[in-house]
Amino acid sequence: MLAGAALVLLLLQEVISRSLGIVAPSHYLSPTFLSPAALAAFALFAILSTRAERMRVLRIGLGLEAVRICLHLLAGRDPLNLLLFPGFGLGVATWGFLAHQVLTSAGPRRQRSLDMLAAALAVPFGHLLLWPCILATIPLLPNLQDNMLIRLDAALGFQPAALVGLMFREAPLLHVLHLVIYFQIPLAMYVVAALEERAQRRTGVGLIPACLVAAVIGYGLYVMMPAIGPRPYFGDGFAEAMWHLAALPTETVVNTANPRNAVPSLHMTWALLIYLAARQEGPLAHLGAIAFALGTALATLGLGEHYFIDLVVAVPLVLLVRAICAFGVPLARPQRWVPLGLGVVLLLGWSLIIRQILDPTGIPGLAPLLMLGTVALCFSAERVLLRLERGVQDTQLWRLGAVAGTSD
User: Any stretches that span the bilayer, and where are they (predicted)?
Assistant: First the structure.
């Protein structure tokens, strides 16, 4: 049901976007754009399928990927794209195989295939819906709040994005590694979601639905706190420009070229949700998720996509999403409604600061203290929620099939 509604929304958005002459979802139907989600879909399938199914899809997918590589090189395109965005053929084979299983099987086998197909399509559908919406806000929100974000970061005594950006410039391999981490967040998300499903141990409703909820709320916050990030703001030399700022900017900046998707960092939000879900999947998954979250934080800063404060504001968004998605805990319990309210209050508070209605930068040390307090409060509240969740029977939590609206 939910998957069908998403398809209708996608088609409706396509028609409206084309009629208005703005970017439509079909503009993103390219192997490069879809490859991270495609590779992630194959990883999900590989973990949850039988060996025979896995090998069949792998053979077809590698064949499709070989064709894609040949066409890419014959067209004279940058080979680096193949390194950063592999797996399109594997994803197409996965989606095709699961769709075939849905159409030709029956009973529990069909339900299993439908659940997997819905989950495998959740991220690409989400991207196709979200990006045109983000781009559509550019003419509606011409005034940016980047100057306040720069001042909040400066309250730390330095510019974190500039520091990491300069580090990446001196270490090209480190730069490429973090490019891979940044673009392959769907892969980490789907691997942990597959581990959740296989172990029948979930945090709240499950990782994929939680990440979709975060994207929807995050879009609303983009509108509340419009900003574009260091690289779009300063250009490719953002690290040097920020490091040598003679004076902190104060005036509101007008920009009509770049998407408003800086604060909060959805990449950091998703990475933290991945970490929270991976805690229950064994020490290897736990440590891997910690490393991935740290790598994502460095990538968002060093690539010039986000300011440090964007990462801080992502933390109350994570808490809010966790509380919303903790369906196994009654809303009347304070362990659920307190995190819910705290997440809302902190997000509203930071929006007032970023929109310069409140300004803590005038008091030395106050802004860093607020950042530290935000992170500490959110992780403490989430920990209390987790302890209560672990006392709730797993049968009360949603299955992976909730993505399709097909859970029993």
Answer: 33-50, 57-76, 82-104, 116-141, 173-193, 205-225, 307-325, 337-357, 363-381
DSSP H/E element including 92: helix 88-104
- As a whole number of angstroms, the distance between CA 291 and CA 287 comes to 6
- 131 lies in some domain: no
Residues 110-153 have pLDDT tens digits of 999 999 999 999 998 888 888 888 888 888 899 999 999 999 99
Closest of 22, 94, 28 to residue 58, by C-alpha: 94
Is the pLDDT at 402 greater than 50? The verdict is no
Q: Do 205 and 196 touch, CB atoms closer than 8 A?
A: no
**Domain count of the fold of the chain:** 2
Q: pLDDT, tens digit, for every residue of 20-73? A: 566 666 666 788 889 999 999 999 999 999 999 999 999 999 999 999 999 989
Same domain, 306 and 159: yes
Q: Is the pLDDT of residue 335 over 90?
A: no
Length of the chain: 408
Segment 229-269, tens digit of pLDDT = 999 999 999 999 999 987 888 777 888 789 999 999 999 99
C-alpha distance across the termini of the chain, in Å: 13
CA–chain centroid gap for 39, Å, is: 16
Alpha-carbon distance of 370 to 102, in angstroms, equals 51
Ramachandran region, residue 356 (left: φ > 0; alpha: ψ -120 to 50; beta: rest)? left
Shared domain check, 159 and 104? no
The amino acid that residue 251 corresponds to is: E
Amino acid at 237: G
Q: Indicate if 264 and 158 belong to the same structural domain.
A: yes
Residue span of the structural domain in which 73 resides: 29-121
Tokens 């990538």 appear where? 299
Domain check: are 161 and 209 in the same one?
yes
